[in-house]
Design brief:
By secondary structure, the protein is mainly alpha-helical. It has one domain: Up-down Bundle (Growth Hormone, Chain: A), CATH 1.20.1250. α6 packs across α13 and α7 runs antiparallel to α12. The longest helix has 30 residues. It is globular and about 55 Å long. It starts with a helix and ends with a helix.
Length: 325
């Protein structure tokens, strides 16, 4: 619709606001559903590889998409980019239609899936490992993601005193780092998860603090690359741990809570962090955010303890085997 409105010259700001709101509502349903669907298509002992592949494709599209959009805008205008984006969803629609049109799991599991969202929240609150992973993502959303999304244009312009070209390179660096970080998930065994996640928390905190002290584009780009790799790995590992621990009949609701810790908090976190940076200055805000994130991240991982890597994967049920047969 945006493409048609732009092509006909009838686009107004309220069109963008309404369609963006509708897109946000759709994503709030889509992301938990997709996250819960991926583990249902493979055996439980294959979840880690499936999530790693899913994250690699996601971050790979972040690299390719903006580049193609830029070419389309340059050749045929903004409307062409929106039409191409809409057309790309056909592949997803075809893939979803091709999935088996039958319940996944036993009849008892299907009945349990209808028990309501309260059971999902109750389970998350009672499961220390899942609660720790969701808390870590929430902490990251509040203190780190505003730095590399909402505040980045202001940081480039006001702190580094650079322009859109340099910001584009920083975003490309971030996307590249995230892509390679997601590929790195395949090399992280269960016994090394806690060490990797702790190291990634340290890397993220150091990266944000480095940006608070940086006066050069090169140092900032290196910091952004390290940040992206570490964040991508921790998001992927947290997702893998949550999907492995959640029972199949609660996986959708647990995924919804997991998504809420990111998508639900992002707008609020952006307001809080940018407001704080207006009060104390951007460099001070980044330094404080890095310290709080580092201390909070290590505390959360200590709460999860060795369960992150030592807890055995639940046995593969007959229903799970049948679902991928």
């Amino acid at each position: 619709m945006l493409g048609r409105l732009i092509m006909t010259g009838r686009i107004h700001i309220w069109h963008v606001i309404v369609l963006a709101a509708l897109l946000g509502i759709a994503i709030s349903f889509e992301m938990p559903a997709i996250s819960a669907l991926v583990p249902e298509l493979v055996r439980r002992d294959q979840i880690a590889a499936a999530v790693a592949m899913d994250r690699s494709v996601f971050h790979g599209s972040r690299l390719v998409g903006p580049s193609l959009a830029g070419l389309l805008v340059g050749w045929w205008g903004a409307a062409a980019a929106f039409f191409a984006n809409a057309f790309s969803f056909l592949a997803l629609i075809v893939a979803l239609i091709s999935l088996p049109k039958r319940p996944i799991g036993t009849k008892e599991e299907e009945e349990q899936r209808r028990s309501g969202i309260k059971e999902g929240f109750r389970y998350v609150a009672s499961e220390r490992t899942i609660l720790a992973m969701i808390a870590l993502i929430a902490l990251t959303t509040i203190f780190v993601f505003p730095v590399i999304s909402v505040m980045l244009p202001l940081y480039v312009r006001n702190v580094l005193q650079l322009g859109p070209r340099e910001m584009g390179w920083l975003m490309a660096t971030s996307g590249t780092g995230a892509f390679f970080g997601s590929l790195g998930l395949l090399s992280v065994g269960r016994e090394r998860r806690l060490k990797f996640m702790s190291g990634n928390v340290l890397a993220v905190a150091a990266g944000v603090f480095s940006m608070s002290r940086s006066h050069s584009f090169a140092l900032t780009a290196c910091s952004m690359g390290v940040l992206a790799i570490a964040l991508s790995m921790n998001f992927g590992l947290a997702n893998i741990i949550v999907q492995e621990h959640a029972p199949s009949h609660l996986r959708g609701r647990v995924s919804a809570v997991f998504g809420l810790s990111f998508f639900g908090l992002m707008p609020i976190a952006g307001l809080i962090v940018t407001g704080f940076s207006d009060l104390v200055g951007m460099r001070t805000a980044l330094a404080v955010a890095s310290i709080i994130y580092g201390a909070g991240g290590f505390s959360i991982l200590s709460m999860a303890g060795r369960h992150v890597c030592d807890r055995p994967v639940a046995p593969v049920s007959e229903s799970e085997v049948a679902s991928v047969a």
